[in-house]
């Protein structure tokens, strides 16, 4: 059975184009779906979190374990998934801070990547990511779109190179994005 992790990051729960596209896409998939809605936010990284990531698990304090508990849960969701579906608007030329915080919690040395003599190597292999981006004014894939290259880079850094981006720009771009979602899910 395929495991699908759906990540919604729009601050708008109603009337969100990216969420609508994710609804359409996920409805065409078969498998177990786990949904993580980031609209309520995620804590940003702090000094305790950073210190905990560089402390061997057996030497971590209770505070350090508590600081990593959410990060561990988010990583477990990603590790269990075969396909990750991300719905996101473009805010101020890039992704919402909540989606960035989610990625920050995932990017952990020794857990989702490690360093070698030749540079970093991602450890989250064999997964597919589908990103459904909605933008009111920044054309997806344009020089002003910092979301697409950032997301592709972060996932590749963690070992996920099968990343598909479907964009909807304004009301005119929605039908094209819906057609892209339908074709991708076929």
Protein described:
The chain is of the alpha/beta class and 186 residues long. It has one domain (3-185): Rossmann fold, CATH 3.40.50.360. Helices cover 40% and strands 23% of the residues. The chain has six helices and seven strands, in the order βαβααβαβββαβα. It has helices at residues 17-27, 47-53, 62-80, 97-106, 147-157, 170-185; strands at 3-8, 32-37, 83-89, 113-116, 119-122, 128-135, 162-169. The chain has a five-stranded parallel β-sheet with strand order 2-1-3-6-7, with helices on both faces. A two-stranded antiparallel sheet has the order 4-5. The longest helix has 19 residues, at 62-80. The chain starts with a strand and ends with a helix. The mean pLDDT is 91.
Describe the protein's topology.
Blueprint: E1 3-8, H1 17-27, E2 32-37, H2 47-53, H3 62-80, E3 83-89, H4 97-106, E4 113-116, E5 119-122, E6 128-135, H5 147-157, E7 162-169, H6 170-185
Helix pairs in contact: 1-6, 2-3
**Morphology call:** globular
Low-confidence stretches: none
Into which percentage range does the β-strand content fall?
15-25%
Which CATH class?
Alpha Beta
Second-tier CATH architecture: 3-Layer(aba) Sandwich
Question: What's the domain count?
Answer: 1
Describe the sheet with the most strands: 5 strands, parallel
Structural class: alpha/beta
The radius of gyration over CA amounts to 17 Å
Instruction: Determine the number of helices (DSSP H or I, runs of at least 4 residues).
Output: 6
Distance between the termini: 18 Å
Regarding quaternary structure, what we see is single chain
Average pLDDT works out at: 91
Q: Count all strands and give the number.
A: 7
Largest sheet, spatial ordering of strands:
2-1-3-6-7
Helix-strand topology string: EHEHHEHEEEHEH
CATH superfamily: Flavodoxin domain
CATH topology: Rossmann fold
As a percent range, the share of helical residues equals 25-40%
